[in-house]
Amino acid sequence: MFLSASSVPQTGVRHSTFESLRLGRSSQSIASGFLRLWDSLNFKKDMEFVGITVLFLDKKVNSVIHGFTPLGRANHYRSSLKAGSIVKIDHFEVARCSSMYKITDHPFLICFISLTIIDEVITDAHEINFQSRLDCSTISK
Asked: pTM above 0.90?
């Protein structure tokens, strides 16, 4: 697993917006605000833990997209996901979001894969007002 949450300042973060995401596995990067995470449970199988669902905000296009970390990688990424932080995510899979599980208006879902790298962005990131798009206090755990 590749995972880091370095405190070393990063400059010149190059990234795509949510609008430019392409379906499939990708080496592209996104930098966005990290809004919230919660455990995903399978209600049909005695509330079995199946992974972590996350929400990301792209202030450039005022868009929210959700992501998913499956059970096998959940513990590796949990410590790198801090609500209110700005993160850069590299190497992930983009899939169509099933209408059954759709929690944002965005048609895609970001899936963490074994190559996914998450870094907290310290410098040169866009300032994000986390209350501008979504009031996180209204989302139940």
From this structure: no
* Alpha helices, H only, the chain: 71-78
Task: Say if residues 68 and 111 touch (Cβ distance below 8 Å).
Answer: yes
Give yes or no for a contact between 32 and 92, defined as CB atoms under 8 angstroms apart: no
Contact 115, 89 (CB under 8 A): no
Domains of the chain in start order, with CATH, are: 25-125 (2.40.50.140)
Angle at CA of residue 139, ends 133 and 141, nearest 5°:
145
**109 Cβ contact list (under 8 Å, min separation 6):** 65, 66, 67, 68, 94, 95, 96, 97
Q: Give 109-124 pLDDT, tens digit per residue.
A: 999 998 999 888 754 4
CB atoms within 10 A of CB 54: 25
